[in-house]
Amino acid sequence: MNIFVFIKQVPHTESRIGVSPDGKEVDLKNVTEWVINPYDEYAIEEALRIREKFGGTVSVVSLGEERVKNALKTALGMGADNAFHILIEDSGYDVLRKGYIAFQFLKERDFDLIFTGKVGIDYYLASFPLILAQFLNIPCLSAIVKLEIEGKKVLAFRETEMGKEVCETSLPAIFTAEKGLNEPRYPTLRLLMAAQKKEILTKKGEEISSLSFSPTIQVLNTYLPPPRKQGRIIEGEPEKQVKELVRLLREEARVI
Fewest CB atoms within 10 A around its CB: which of 28, 31, 74, 245? Predict the structure, then answer.
């Protein structure tokens, strides 16, 4: 079973994010800590469990700048067999080109399953696996919480707003991991030390594909959410507090 997992790096959730002076871009200059996209950790874990059950190899792939090698080393520390780095300038909205480069990378390789996370928590586009599936002309089942494999037949379980959904498809296929699919393991010290010595195969994106794409998304404006209003403490006796609270809810908050 040849399994490929596409992962990406995202800023740590406690990172300070700004906006560029022209208001068109997210400013990531002050981000000092980058981590594997949390949903991608579920994807890595599921790939490892399938390998442990059926045999084969797990290869992790990341498209991005030099720093994504740290994410790849973490994946190797979790137990992945191989790591590939496709060096490109990191652009959050350039998913069509990323999907095409990934397609060119995969089309000469044998694969049975491809995993990604359900969505990247940075730009929340969730379009990369769909674009890749379209280029490869294979099925894509998103946000799975359970996977059952029997030969070339796969049952994928999803939880939707309408209830639980069971989909059947055949391999090869792409699956995107949802929270609840599994509990990702921690990298082991032994594997992390081995990962430092293991070669990460790197290739420039333009060496894989020089095809350019016209921008499909135009950013009109980027802004930070408004600051929260300061809380208010209502003083006085309980009866007075209740009356003041009701007045505020009716006249200011306008929720009653």
Answer: 245
Three-state SS string over the chain comes to: CEEEEEECEEECCCCCCEECCCCCCEECCCCCCEEECHHHHHHHHHHHHHHHHHCCEEEEEEEECHHHHHHHHHHHHHCCCEEEEEECCCCCCCHHHHHHHHHHHHCCCCCCEEEEECCCCCCCCCCHHHHHHHHHCCCEEEEEEEEEEECCEEEEEEEECCEEEEEEEECCEEEEECCCCCCCCCCCHHHHHHHHHCCCEEEEHHHHCCCCCCCCCCCCCCCCCCCCCCCCCCCCCHHHHHHHHHHHHHHCCCCC
Q: What would the pLDDT profile of 75-116 be if each residue is shown by its tens digit?
A: 999 999 999 999 998 777 889 999 999 999 999 899 999 999
* pTM score, whole prediction: 0.85
> Is the Cβ–Cβ distance between 77 and 191 less than 8 Å?
yes
